[in-house]
Amino acid sequence: MLKFPVDGGIVTIRSIILIPAECATVTTSSKEILKEVEVCHENFKVALHPNFPDQEVAIEGTLLAKGQTELCSLLKENLDIFAWQPSDMTGVPRSVAEHRLNIQKGYSPVRQKKRGQAPERAKAIQAEVQKLVKARIMREVYYHDWLSNPVMVKKHDDSWRMCVDFTDLNKAYPQDCYPLPKID
């Protein structure tokens, strides 16, 4: 559900689980139902921040044209609440961002054997780690309890995404009460 203010009240956009791309109802706080006029069913992308034109937000095409413009203006008015680069995330309290591992009893920490990387991947890893260290999101630690290797995945634009191999940790972690559905 998404709510945002407009002239005459607050617009509430609800989506059903079966068809997440379509808005089920659009109502205002005065219970007036808007007619679907000027609906464009094609999604479009908008660059909100002038300093980061490559970072775009996808807007669903099922919104009314007026709703699309109001949503874009609402997002542009609140640019300061988004993290546009890793250094924007400093100052998050540890109580919010830090967590502990809920490991089942009987599992001892596993340190994966260090795997070497190709030179191109090693440079991408070094750049990503330096960016996170500079933003104070990551720091160097000693005496690792759980140590996992980075896994480099090629993105569609031929850049690299750094992931972490948590295979051993996932085995020691209790099963989720509400697992994700099978997506086949």
Mean pLDDT: 76
Strand order of the biggest β-sheet: 1-2-3
Share in helix: 10-25%
Q: Roughly what fraction of the amino acids lie in strands?
A: 15-25%
Radius of gyration: 22 Å
Oligomer: single chain
Number of helices: 4
InterPro entries: DNA/RNA_pol_sf, RNA-dir_DNA_polymerase
Protein name: Reverse transcriptase domain-containing protein
Short description:
This is Reverse transcriptase domain-containing protein. This protein is 21% helix and 19% strand. It is α+β, with helices and mostly antiparallel strands.
Describe it for me?
It is a single chain. The chain has helices at 65-77, 94-97, 119-134, 167-172; strands at 2-6, 9-15, 23-27, 44-47, 56-59, 150-154, 160-164. It folds into 2 domains: 2-81, no CATH class; 103-172, HIV Type 1 Reverse Transcriptase, subunit A, domain 1 (HIV Type 1 Reverse Transcriptase, Chain A, domain 1, Roll). The strands form 3 sheets. It has a 3-stranded antiparallel β-sheet, covered by helices on one side. A two-stranded antiparallel ribbon has the order 4-5. A two-stranded antiparallel ribbon has the order 6-7. The model is unreliable at 17-40 (pLDDT under 50). It is built from 4 helices and 7 strands. The longest helix is centred in the last third of the chain and has 16 residues, at 119-134. Helix content is 21%, strand content 19%. The chain is an alpha+beta fold and 184 residues long. Strand 6 and strand 7 (160-164) form a beta hairpin. This is Reverse transcriptase domain-containing protein. It comes from Tanacetum coccineum. InterPro entries: DNA/RNA_pol_sf (IPR043502), RNA-dir_DNA_polymerase (IPR053134).
